[in-house]
Amino acid sequence: MSMNDNCMISEKESHYLNQLQIANNKLKQANDIIERSSIIIFEWSIGPGIPVKLVTKNISIFGYSEEDFYSGAVDYWDFVYEKDVEKTQSIVWKAREKKGLNEYKHVYRIKCKNGDIRWVEEWTILERDSNGELISEKGVLRDITEQIETSEKLKQSEERYRSLFDNAGALICTIDIHGNFTSVNNACINLTGYDRESLLKMNIKDFATSENPFPFDYDNIMSLVISHLGTHGQFPIRTKNNDTLILEGRATISYNEGKPSEFQIIAQDVTSRIIAEKKIHHLTFHDKLTNLYNRAYFDDILQKLESKQEYPCSIIMGDMNGLKLANDAFGHKVGDCLLIETANILRSSCPERSIVARLSGDEFAMIIPNCSENEAVKICKVIKELCSKSNSHPIKPSIALGYSTSNDNTKTLDSLIIEADDNMYKNKLNDSTRTRRA
């Protein structure tokens, strides 16, 4: 062999050794990275008890040493938390028997040397021969305790908020930008009468009432909600039983990638409150016996009408004849019937937009917009005729009337009332005089 050949072999060996050294260094670096991480590598023997052939040094994060496993002092199934052993063994045996399976993942708990319990995710790689028979079994363990605990806390939080959502006294629901329901709570189910499955197939349009349709454009619901963000509103809905409920609430918007994607609606059933408020308002401004407007409403509306009179405008004042006599002779029940009959006659004789009020015991007033003097005379005549034709027993209603008309703003409503009142008392006196002469 020549010197040149020896030099060539030496150069080849040197190159090979250099490459081997580089590979070893990279392997050592990789091993160092693994051992400094929470990722632990195992290799198990294929046989009873799954003895450990290889485990990385960072098994120490669980309190164990490599020797604990190599010596057999710790069997792998002693490492697995006792409550998870049976389930984990079942997964391992089934995976080994499934010849086409080369890798799988599963999660279980392990027991640290100090007794602490940790969650791990195992990624197992199965090496098989050409016949599918298992040759080796390697696994990568990753501590996922924090993930599991965070996931569990998130789950508990979701369950807590789901419980709050479902059991809230307020109606809570979400709808998409087209008005279709995407979630509903129990209050929504109870108020509407529909079950959850039915509601999730419905659109908000399905709750519109024929008497009180929703005051918005369904085709532009997104713009409507955006324009009313942060404000409360009232709207009627139709229930499954065709009842009408009044809801009061507000809506908010959730966004997806900067675009509105869903509306959250929170509302209360205020039907009873609205009915009570209307009843209180009615009682505040109506006479309980005759159901005409009372003095409080008459004085209030008088000020409002003063600024927007509709000419010609007429006021008719009325004072019942013989009410005290009827009360004294026949009792207050008969007197009340006379008052009710008189109120019905006045109401039916006046145009629809008239304001008919009972000012005191036997005194009435009528404000009639767009009513000329001739029309006021006709109304007074109709009232008199209806009183004379009344079937009221034992006494017919009788009322003295006086009117006043203004064709422009030269007269105030107060002056019209005084003038109509004076005319009424003049007519009452004339009626009394005629009655005595008769």
How does this model look, in words?
The protein is of the alpha+beta class. The protein folds into three domains: 37-147, PAS domain (Beta-Lactamase, 2-Layer Sandwich); 168-273, PAS domain (Beta-Lactamase, 2-Layer Sandwich), CATH 3.30.450; 286-437, Alpha-Beta Plaits (2-Layer Sandwich), CATH 3.30.70.270. It has 14 helices and 14 strands. The strands form three sheets. It has a five-stranded antiparallel β-sheet, sandwiched between helices. The protein is rod-shaped and about 145 Å long. The mean pLDDT is 86.
Give the key terms:
single chain, 438 residues, Alpha-Beta Plaits, 24% strand, Beta-Lactamase, 3 domains, alpha+beta, rod-shaped
Could you give a short description of this structure?
With 438 residues, the protein is an alpha+beta fold. Helix content is 44%, strand content 24%. The longest helix is centred in the N-terminal third of the chain and has 34 residues, at 3-36.
